[in-house]
Specification:
Largest sheet: 8 strands, mixed
Structural class: alpha+beta
Radius of gyration: 22 Å
CATH class of the largest domain: Alpha Beta
CATH topology of the largest domain: FAD/NAD(P)-binding domain
Number of helices: 12
Helix content: 25-40%
Shape: globular
Strand content: 15-25%
Distance between the termini: 46 Å
CATH architecture of the largest domain: 3-Layer(bba) Sandwich
Number of domains: 3
Amino acid sequence: MYDAVIIGAGVTGSSIARYLSRYDAKVCVLEKTEDVCTGTSKANSAIVHAGYDAANGSLMAKYNVEGSEMMPALSRELDFEYDMCGSIVVCLSEEDRPALQALYENGVKNGVKDLEIIERDRLLELEPNIADNAVCALWAPTGGIVCPFGLTIALAENACENGVEFFFNKEVTDIEKTENGFVVKTNDGDFETRTVINAAGVYSDVFHNKFAEKKMQITPRKGEYLLLDHATYGYVTHTVFQLPGKFGKGVLVTPTVHKNTLVGPTATDIEDREATNTTQEGLAEVIEKSALALKNVPVRQVITSFAGLRAHEASHEFVIGELAEAPGFFDAAGIESPGLSSSPAIGLHVSDMVAEKLGLEKKADFKAERKGIVKASDLSLEERNALIKENSAYGQIICRCESISEGEIIDAIRRPLGAKSLDGVKRRVRAGMGRCQGGFCSPRVMEILARELGLSLSDITKSGGNSKIIVGTVKDSI
């Protein structure tokens, strides 16, 4: 019997797990795929929103501002990449200035600090490549960028170190109410629990509607992106949004914590909850709209494109809390933008709700800190030489584009909730995320995975399941 079963190992589920691990309780996370951070959390804008956009008084506004304020300290505690680079909302027409003023006033009501409307001269100082017709902008210095993989994995690893169990390839098929709580049925066994926490992303309405009188409708909203090469880093130094106006709703252009440039997304409502394919039309829209607020966006230096799905709830609001019709069933549903920004606050508050429900007590030995993977190329020459002397694997560069060593890949596999696939390694250390997109390093990463996991090369997958890379007769090495 578990005290709590969390459905979904995205950033919301992992954050709830981390904060719930502060309490003396038996907790597990059920994830239908082979790893954490494989759904919405892995394919988004990687933005920590300041909190000026969400409607005043909404849960989105409350958790966005609180989560954004929590992020700097959390990044130090859990050792993930975060940069408070600031964000800019560009107004492209004088007739849209009142809308910018309204956005500023909403942000002030939401409690966002240091907001300011700046005129064109100051805007050009911040972003020299701004469009000629840009009039003014909302400047939010508390906006930031983060690595969504790094954040989610850090939360999950810390939860695991504090006793939370993670079960992968466990797809929840049904939930039944019992006298003592719930039975959560999966494709591979049942789990008895006193409480259930629904953090299932685009599938969260399925579980909510099992018990709730007021039904929820989640619509998958696809966002398509272009990722540009390291050579474009510095083209913008802040996240640049476009104010929705007479030119329609634009797309953002932002630096990333890994020194790329990200452009997107589109926003297309679809029916298929697994449709993360990109389209010619969507990427063309990204290119066209990015040129409205900025000049000469370097889209010719694209190294990859991708798409993610947001769990859009019909009333555009987070659904968080215990269901009256099913005591012990907690929702963390409808978590779309600013969900990534809000995740620390959601995790904190939902965990406290569950703890109060169950009468849990805080642990005396909770480990609040977690150390991430050492990136050898970030070290000084002296530090790197000392590391290589201690472990020669750090002197073997496997991914040339991102300068990733064998030692880092081994660490990614061996650490708590370690990588089991090429994408698992990629999310943890970026091997395969560079200009060649794994064309050079994938065979060597596969060999390391096979060796470390005691598997055949033919067992190694891109992202778990049936995503086999090699079929047929395989030799011991490539």
